[in-house]
Amino acid sequence: MRSAEDALKMILLGANRVGYATMAMMALGCTACRGCQLDTCHVGITTQIESVEEARARGLKKFEPQVLEVAVEHLVRVFKGMGQSLAGYVEQLGETRLQNLVGRWDLLQQEHYFSVVNVVGYIEQLQEALQRAIRAESEVLVATGTDAVVAPVSPASPNQRAIGTGLSHRGLAPAGPIAVNRVAGQGFGAFNGKGLSLLALGGAQDGVGKGAMGGEIVVLKTRNQQGELVGGSCGKSLAYGAQAGTFIIQGQADARAGVRLAGANVIILNDVPDTSLWSWTNWGPAAIKGFGFEYMTRGVGIILGDPGPWLCAGMTGGVLYLELDPERGLTQAVLQDRLATNAKIQWKPLEAQDVTAVRRLLSLAQERTRDTASERLKAKLEQLLSDPSRWMIKAVPEGMQADPDVSTE
Length: 409
What we know:
The chain is of the alpha/beta class and about 400 residues long. The protein contains 11 helices and 13 strands.
């Protein structure tokens, strides 16, 4: 959304929440160069670079550090104006509360572009589209059966998005996991609900389990035509804002796994052949491709192997368990080097309750990967389960929240 009018239209169509992304970034000075993941943002937004000198050392020709006070002032001005505009629309429509306008699509009227899109016809078909979606996901329930342990959904393709979301919305859950026998499309298990188990055999795209409220989501390797076990990884923003549930990823996760994690359990096993450490010239061993568990407020994360760069940026709650393997060079000093510049965390040894938690989650991961894990991963899990306090260390924020239940993220 880019304006108050955009937001109002979505609210009239039924939205209770509306997100602003590009517009807010532009208010901070974003130039839309589409290189956020490179850590070279020349206006100082999506980067760990803090000074012009550091930017020049990294080879940037232009760099303007963000000034916090100015950035805040710009955002306040933009969103204050947005609120005032929405208040004006509410008054024009004869209401006193914006919430009263949610779902009032009868107040929408199309005036232009009929030759391009017929919004009137679209609105009239909303109920029919909803019924079609319900029937489609009901077929998934039939495919799983009441006694299924694993029942692949066929056909399944990357074009099928948000698998399981409709079932969660209606509070439905089959007796066994719903399994996708190819790489799952975007939003796999988005807003996953309690009691719903999803299994992706081969991998999953971006947004796995975003906003999850419970259940279990597992991404495993699968055998290719040569009989080799391949895949098992997922895309960006794994478990974004997930408040409950358990995630098990056999392979690796793309950038920002666990971002804004708010209560779920996330286990990234990093089952890859490359046993070296991450470097700027070798990203292969990184369990997460940057910014893992950014802005985490609650929950538990377990990462095996090298966690990758820019870890724990803005982390204010929860706990992260990381593997120690001095023989491979994976030491506390190396883990410290993986932290983002603004990460304010402290390293602590595992206590009795930590050992119990780690064993419970890794035992579950061991069970789920029983048929797909490499021999190296099997041995690694046995080693960690035998003595978690020896082979793992935990990271917690320097200033833990007094009451994490009040967190909104």
